[in-house]
Amino acid sequence: xxxxxxxxxxxxxxxxxxxxxxxxxxxxxxxxxxxxxxxxxxxxxxxxxxxxxxxxxxxxxxxxxxxxxxxxxxxxxxxxxxxxxxxxxxxxxxxxxxxxxxxxxxxxxxxxxxxxxxxxxxxxxxxxxxxxxxxxxxxxxxxxxxxxxxxxxxxxxxxxxxxxxxxxxxxxxxxxxx
Length: 178
Prior knowledge:
Blueprint: H1 2-21, H2 52-58, H3 61-66, E1 73-74, H4 87-99, E2 104-110, H5 117-137, E3 145-151, H6 162-168, E4 170-177
């Protein structure tokens, strides 16, 4: 029995030393490394800036006319002379047309609703002719410009006031060939 007692005492001493000798290690939380997100520069694909010539070539006649590349001009009542404030518009139209010598244009003469059909057809023709002559005086080839008169048959706006009449007394520049 002494032998058992000796074994129990020896085990107790071993356990006591093993339990007391070790101090519990502090467990510190593991800090994950801070990872910063670095945005890599994305190569921006810039759309090429198209020249006026390239834009012109890409567009159809309908698109060019819808975009109103060539601006309309207006006239005074019962007149077909180009107004002073409309001359810069015709000049800008001429400058554009001179850049593109292959272009052909139709100038439509229009009138307000006052007057007879016959009178307004004649007046619309004079307005279109005056616009054509001004373009030709600025260097445009006369063969590239055609005219037509619609008189009062195609009003731009409806109305029986001076503002409406003024808008209807006009010459429209329509691109007919590129």
